[in-house]
Every structure is written in structure tokens, then in C-alpha cells.
């Protein structure tokens, strides 16, 4: 397994885990248990997504596509303008 991405926070990590799983890529979140130590440990680099070596390139491509995506105009519900319904 190799670490391929460092999410900014736990919410992004969980979102990416779900996205990777939906694409058939099994990923592991490293550092989840260290979040409670923020303040005593450095804030950056605690979380990391790790995947099997043979799936690393594909997982990186998926994450790059996720990071490059932008909302499609008109996709937000009328009751909540400027909020995407995922």
C-alpha cells in the first residue's frame, strides 16, 4: 500500500473514500485516530489515503479529476441557491 493523498480534513477524507469505493478502488484512511490530538501534534499531514500499489495511479487520476471539477451551473436546488445537491 502507498499513501497517495493527504486530505485537508476528515470530511474530505470520507468523501474521497466513498468516491474511490464507488469506482472499485479499496482505500484506507491513515491517521483518523490522531485528529483528537490536534494542538499537541502538527495539524498538517495527519490524514492520508492509502491504496494498493497496483491501484495507486488510477486512484490519483480519480482524485485529480475530483479536485479539478467545478459545479455545473443550474445543478443547485431552487430552495437552496448556490448549494449543490450531491
Describe the SSE topology.
Elements: E1 2-5, H1 10-22, E2 27-30, E3 48-51, H2 56-68
Antiparallel strand pairs: 1-3, 2-3
Pfam families: DUF2007
Organism: Pseudomonas psychrophila
InterPro entries: DUF2007
Quick check: average pLDDT?
A: 82
DSSP strand count: 3
The H-level CATH homologous superfamily, spelled out, is: Hypothetical protein rpa1041
Which structural class best describes the helix and strand composition?
A: alpha+beta
User: How many H/I helices?
Assistant: 2
| CATH overall fold name | Alpha-Beta Plaits
The largest β sheet comes out as: 3 strands, antiparallel
Overall CATH architecture: 2-Layer Sandwich
Number of domains: 1
Helix content: 25-40%
Order of SSEs? EHEEH
Protein name: DUF2007 domain-containing protein
InterPro entries: DUF2007
Domain DUF2007: 1-65
Description:
With 86 residues, the chain is an alpha+beta fold. The protein has one domain: Alpha-Beta Plaits. The protein has two helices and three strands; from the N terminus they run E-H-E-E-H. It has a three-stranded antiparallel beta sheet, covered by helices on one side. The longest helix has 13 residues. It is globular. The two termini are 30 Å apart.
Question: Summarize this, please?
Answer:
Pfam families: DUF2007. With 86 residues, this protein is of the alpha+beta class. It has two helices and three strands; from the N terminus they run E-H-E-E-H.
